[in-house]
Amino acid sequence: MSALRDELTPLLGAKTAKALAGSLDIHTVSDLLRHYPRRYAERGELTDIAGLEIGEHVTVMARIEKVTSRPMKARYGNLLEVVITDGRRRLSCAFFNQAAKHSKGLVIGKSGLFAGKVTVFRDNLQLANPEYELIDDEADPSAMETFLAEMIPVYPAAQGVPTWSIVKCVRQVLDTLDVVEDPMPPELLKRYGFAGLEDAMRNIHRPADWAQLENARKRLKWDEAMAVQLIFAQRRHSAISRPAVGNPHKDGGLLDAFDKRLPFELTAGQREIGDVLARDLSGTHPMNRLLQGEVGSGKTVVALRAMLQVVDSGRQAAMLAPTEVLASQHARSLREMLGDIGQAGELGAADNATKVTLLTGSMGAKERKQALLDTVSGAAGIIVGTHAIIQDTVSFAELGFVVVDEQHRFGVEQRDALRSRGADSTSPHVLVMTATPIPRTVAMTVYGDLEVSSLREMPVGRSPIATTVVPVAEKPAWLDRVWQRVTEEVGKGHQAYIVCPRIGDEPASDKGDKRPPLAVLDVAQELENGALSGLRLGILHGRMPSDEKDTVMRAFTAGKLDVLVATTVIEVGVNVPNATAMVIMDADRFGVSQLHQLRGRVGRGSVPGLCLLVTETLDGTTTRERLAAVESTTDGFELSRMDLELRREGDILGSTQSGKKSGLKLLSLLRDEEVIAEARERSQEIVTKDPALAAYPGLAHMIADVVDSDRAEYLEKT
Ligand code: ADP
Ligand code: MG
Predict the structure, then answer these.
(1) From the CA of 460, which ligand is nearest?
(2) Do 436 and 477 fall within a single domain?
């Protein structure tokens, strides 16, 4: 009898177990049984050779069409070439110096599975020394048995562990499997009509028909959704179980004063979310909330109102930005919005005024000392800085609330570090804001430890942004037109950004034959001496000293520069309403959401914005499709959905970034929104009743089986 948590060595022998562990990271019965078939070949159905990707390890079902053997010219030895076909296309299998071993079995007309890495040899697809298993190979009774089944599972395989070996291992394990208990509470199985775990596992590996397979997949997909959501429910629970200090609204305080002088009406969304935040902030458990909203949707004012509620209670609020440029910009715009109620200590300040203090790593020693003093003494009600101020040993008088702007650069460790920064071992309330709209499934999965609020409505009077792809490989003349447009905008008294992927001060690397991405320093110089000569150009990038950055940004804001050539340091938060045009060079080097962020810098005033995406990539490539998506809509939510579709799913939750195998094999962020949402609700219910899952020991094991612990962390970092 074998159980899910058993090691494979005693069951399969050391050699097989080692191969599985080494190449597929499969160690236990559960690992093996959760290594699901990638697809199922139906008897007699051949694999479409046209769909094979070069460089991939593939398993194809094909028929032998031609067998030739000849001595190799350049080397001693012989070459056995076996051409296999799916009926339309051909694939050549080359066996080097193995003719004697293989020529007996590889006979024209026979079919079988062939596995190996796809390469190209003289314009033909080839498998070099593939592993294979012929389906009418009567010498091997186990193979016979496999192929008597109607549906032949094809597993993700690896060199040395072909799919038919996995079939045998799985069968061996299933023969002795005894799943004692189903970890899923019976009421959930009943509610959703799910198959039991043992049935599901048997049926996904050896389905009798498609209906049985569908049932099995439905159940096992649910396991994955539950595992992830239970982890998040536990995280949310442990985060909100900490004590926090409540900050109930104070009548006649700074918030009321601020609301009275607001020059515009809050949108309905801003009001609604404002109420939610006000309630959260007055509670005695920490708020952990993600606020997502389009670039320009007015998140800052929402955050500022929340900060004022906390300041009114005598505590401090910190606002963290990903870069120093942004931090100083935030400090400036908060001060502007507050007017005399933010000028404590200055001439003309209101009576109960507070103070906004900027605190960055590269401030001058004297300035920084004053900022630290204001922070520790409590003179500053609002402290603005980069993420570093949370890791640093900066002391606060009483930190009650932290606003993190631009979530996507803020990882889980940083979020955790925050939780211990409140006074007297309380946790501050936390609001993370992102301008990158995320599809609901991603929000529930990647930011699953946070409650999510969305600002979907834009304030009135926002100008549209027209985006155009400029394909310079196909239409080189368009580039001149780009610089003409920039000149025209400047002629009308407006300003422009030119964004490049690289700074250009790094040592030249001669790796690879691909042209390096265009650089700020090169492009600026070229334009200054060429197409844009006569205009006032400035340069901004992350490696400039921070006072220089500040000077440039101020000059641009004040209209003393016409054109700012920059890296993505301007991606977030920079607000210069007079800037109407943006040219993004090598636009294909940026992600969809990054492009969307970038163009949000224009169209902030009363004049429509213009965004030109310059690229050398060719029409028909996925990269161009991504650019076309950015061109087609300015609705960030719609765009994030299209982006999700254009990306391979693996890039979102797969193994590509972590290098580890993904815990989620069946669950799809694209198609399984319903499953994820249901699992989230059920997990929340279970964890609310029983945070440690004491009454559900099986669930805790299941979480570990489905999502290993590194993986769980990784989920948050994406
Ligand atoms: P976000 O941070 O979400 O990108 P901001 O908070 O910077 O957006 O807001 C962009 C601009 O819109 C700011 O100049 C802000 O003052 C203005 N704004 C915010 N809310 C409103 C509103 N309800 N009506 C009009 N203008 C608004
Ligand atoms: Mg903002």
Answers:
(1) 1
(2) no
Number of domains the chain is built from:
3
Q: Please choose, from the candidates 96, 90, 93, 116, the residue with its C-alpha nearest in 3D space to the C-alpha of residue 106.
A: 93
Count of CB atoms situated within 10 Å of the CB of 245: 24
How much distance in Å is there from the Cα of 14 to the middle of ligand 2?
57
Smallest-distance ligand from the CA of 326: 2
pLDDT digits (tens, 9 = 90+) for 677-699: 999 999 999 999 999 999 998 88
Which ligand 1 atom is nearest residue 267's CA? 23
CB under 6 Å to ligand 1: residues?
264-267, 270, 293, 295-301, 435, 459, 575
**Contact, 547 vs 325, CB < 8 A?**
no
Residues facing residue 28 across a β-bridge: 7
Q: Does pTM surpass 0.90? A: no
Does 472 share its domain with 449? no
* Most informative mutation of 259, 292, 300 for ligand 1 (most atoms within 8 A of CB): 300
Ligand 1 pocket mutation pick from 258, 261, 264, 457 by most atoms within 8 angstroms of CB:
264
Residue nearest to atom 23 of ligand 1 (CA): 266
| pLDDT tens figures, 253-280 | 999 999 999 999 999 999 999 999 999 9
Q: What is the pLDDT of residue 419?
A: 74
Range of the domain at 397: 254-455
pLDDT digit string, tens, across residues 314-348: 999 999 988 888 898 899 989 999 999 999 888 78
DSSP one-letter code for 425: G
- Is 568 found in the same domain as 482? yes
370 and 469 belong to one structural domain: no
Identify the CA nearest to 318 among candidates 249, 371, 263: 371
